[in-house]
Design goal:
The chain has 608 residues and is an alpha+beta fold. It has four domains: 3-72, SH3 type barrels, CATH 2.30.30.100; 86-308, Nucleotidyltransferase, domain 5 (2-Layer Sandwich), CATH 3.30.420.10; 315-331 and 346-377, no CATH class; 386-600, Deoxyribonuclease I, Chain A. The chain is built from 19 helices and 22 strands. Strands 6-7-10-9-8-11-12 form a seven-stranded mixed beta sheet. The protein has a five-stranded antiparallel beta sheet with strand order 4-3-2-1-5, with no helix packed on it. The chain has a four-stranded antiparallel beta sheet with strand order 15-18-17-16. Helix 8 (227-238) runs parallel beside helix 12. This is 3'-5' exonuclease domain-containing protein. Residues 159-235 form the 3'-5' exonuclease domain.
Length: 608
């Protein structure tokens, strides 16, 4: 018998268990468990009659039908009520980001049964026997290109005794009871999955998992994406080369990157606390349903988390590629100096050093720096704005009257989150002394607030990286004045600020284009109406929107809401703008000012 086996058997001593045999059901305290499959109980009572036995009682293994801890039984003797071997987790409750993040489907999942995007639940299944469950589970997992992986056990690091192994596919989590299945489970399929280079395993802190698998079962874990490592790399890039003082827990990474409040991840915290207080809970059989649920929850976020981390890690690259594209489109005819090879490092790539320098300055200004040169990412300087970190928070943006297209370029925000486009926008605002700017068609997915450089911060919202999206940029001296942020949809959002005692509501809107369905246009105006109606009387409102309509030049009939300086004839979309202005007693501001001919239409395409 190995030392681990001895410790395992010893851990049951003085535990009260419920033991079912062919002759009846008994409750007693474990005195000893022998290798010959006999159990000696003390303080024994027969459940049905209540009769107590004097002294110790010996039970033989061949007579025992079931063993469970009394903590999982009730007074009526029904010990299996908590042992739900199949369960469901609601997507709406536990993966609220899923419809947005995976709206285009998951190319990494070849699952036919679980690929229905309309599925409202993630199912979890306990695999604790070979006859019916194990084979189908292994076959299903082998079809995947990507799985989430987790484990739970008793002990520390490589000496940990593995009790449960969790594998998550798109809409299902398999909970393998390794304590019951044993090494045979690895010989019959688990090892081939874990060592496969064709299946990517996503996990948080692979050191513990790989060490445990190698030490106990000789499994060489391959093809791994570690969310803890990716989170540190993202922080390193975001701060211009600084490392954090510590790594993040799984719930911290989920909260930060998937924008889930920590209150929604309390089950993961409870799991950590439970393991610290009583790790032997993983030995309990049958396993209580709440514990099964917690194990499933610990792996369902891993696949979406990988997508978000990859996007974050690739943001600098995509920003530089966008710069390349812009250069090629704006300067189709390239000129070269005599003696140049054309392979010199271009200006677009030289900006990498500038980006790094600015990020380092921002990081030092906002995080506490230790003597070791590390940043305490969980301790923001008291003099800095706590909202500069991207966190889930109440949002604020309400309605106001728009002066037309605030920023015309459809791709201007494609990489605004700290990329070159964001810096260009910040530089423009600084140059033109603009304190508050509404932007539309940002095409930036997420619900965040972040610095874009030059002392400006962007609040934005989008659900698709290919269309729509709105945002508001504030000079950072006004960020502390923000009282509320409302992200209504990817076409309407608002901010409420208090400036010198005056309540100001800033609304950013992006109306559907001329070719869109009437239903979509009506939905936009309905959302905008709701925002306006939610603003208390007496508060000021400014709307900065791209209404995608022409209110018409030479106005003579709607002087109360607009001037006469516009372009083209009024269309249906323009009439909707005028009707809204009348309804809300507002004015289309940019029609009151005469502009140069080249400034009257801001949209450009292909140099025209």
């Amino acid at each position: 018998m190995s030392l681990d086996d001895y410790r395992f058997l010893e851990s049951f001593k003085r535990k009260r268990i419920r033991l079912t045999t062919k002759g009846g059901t008994f409750v007693g305290v474990v005195q000893r468990i022998n290798l010959n499959k006999t159990i000696i109980l003390d303080d024994v009572a027969e459940v049905q009659s209540g009769c107590r036995f004097v002294g110790a009682k010996l039970f033989f293994g061949q007579e025992i039908l079931n063993v469970e801890f009394t903590s999982s039984t009730n007074k009526d003797g029904l010990g299996n009520e908590d042992h739900d071997k199949v369960g469901q987790l609601s997507l709406a409750e536990f993966q609220p980001y899923r419809n947005t993040l995976l709206s285009g489907g998951d190319d990494d999942d070849d699952d036919d049964d679980d690929d229905d995007e309309k599925e409202q639940f993630v199912n979890y299944v306990v695999v604790d026997e070979f006859h019916e469950k194990f084979g189908p589970a292994i076959m299903h997992i082998r079809k995947q290109k990507l799985i989430g992986l987790g484990l739970d056990g008793v002990g520390a690091f490589q000496s940990e005794r593995l009790c449960w192994l969790q594998m998550a596919v798109k809409n299902k989590v398999y909970l393998f009871d390794i304590l019951l299945l044993g090494a045979r489970a690895f010989r019959n399929g688990l090892s081939s999955i874990l060592e496969s280079t064709d299946i990517l395993k996503v996990m948080h802190d692979c050191r513990r998992i790989s060490g445990c698998l190698m030490a106990q079962f000789g499994v060489n874990l391959l093809n791994v994406f570690d969310t803890q490592v990716a989170d540190v790399m993202q922080f390193y890039a975001e701060t211009g080369g600084f490392l954090p003082t510590r790594v993040s827990t799984l719930q911290e990474v989920i909260s930060f990157h998937l924008k889930m409040p920590l209150s929604s991840l309390s089950s993961l915290s409870i799991k950590d606390q439970l393991c610290m207080e009583n790790k032997e809970v993983w030995y309990v059989r049958p396993c209580p349903a709440p514990l099964l649920r917690v194990m499933a929850l610990s792996v369902i976020h891993l696949q979406p988390l990988r997508l978000m981390l990859l996007d974050a890690l690739m943001s600098d690259y995509t920003s530089l590629v966008d710069s390349y594209l812009k250069t090629g489109q704006e300067n189709p005819v390239r000129t070269e100096d005599i003696g140049k090879t054309g392979l010199e490092l271009p200006q677009e790539l030289r900006e990498i050093e500038l980006i790094k320098f600015k990020r380092q300055k921002w990081a030092v200004d906002h995080y506490n720096l230790t003597e070791d040169g590390l940043l305490d990412r969980f301790s923001i300087k008291a003099t800095s704005d706590p909202d500069l970190e991207i966190q889930e928070q109440p949002e604020m943006l309400d309605s106001s009257m728009v002066a037309g297209k605030t920023y015309p370029n459809p791709a201007v925000m494609s990489t605004i989150g700290g990329g070159r486009k964001g810096r260009e926008l910040a530089d423009m605002m600084e140059r033109r002394k603009v304190d508050i700017l509404c932007v539309q068609e940002t095409r930036w997915k997420g619900s965040k607030a972040r610095s874009i450089g030059a002392g400006f911060k962007l609040f934005y919202y989008g659900v698709d990286s290919k269309r729509n999206g709105v945002g508001v940029v504030l000079k950072e001296e006004f960020v502390r004045n923000v009282l509320e942020v409302k992200r209504v949809s990817d076409r309407v959002m608002s901010l409420k600020l208090e400036i010198e005692g005056v309540m100001l509501n800033v609304v950013s809107g992006y109306a559907p284009q001329v070719g869109c369905e009437l239903e979509e246009k009506e939905r936009f105006w309905s959302e905008l109406d709701e925002v306006m109606e939610s603003i208390p009387t007496g508060e000021r409102v400014v709307i900065g929107a791209d209404f995608n309509g022409h209110v018409g030049e030479g106005n003579t009939s709607d002087e109360e809401v607009m001037g006469k300086f516009e372009v083209k004839e009024r269309n249906l979309e323009g009439q909707m703008v005028v009707d809204f202005a009348k309804r809300m007693d507002m004015a289309v501001v940019n029609t009151y000012f005469q502009k140069r001919e080249e400034h009257r239409v801001t949209y450009k395409s292909g140099g025209r």
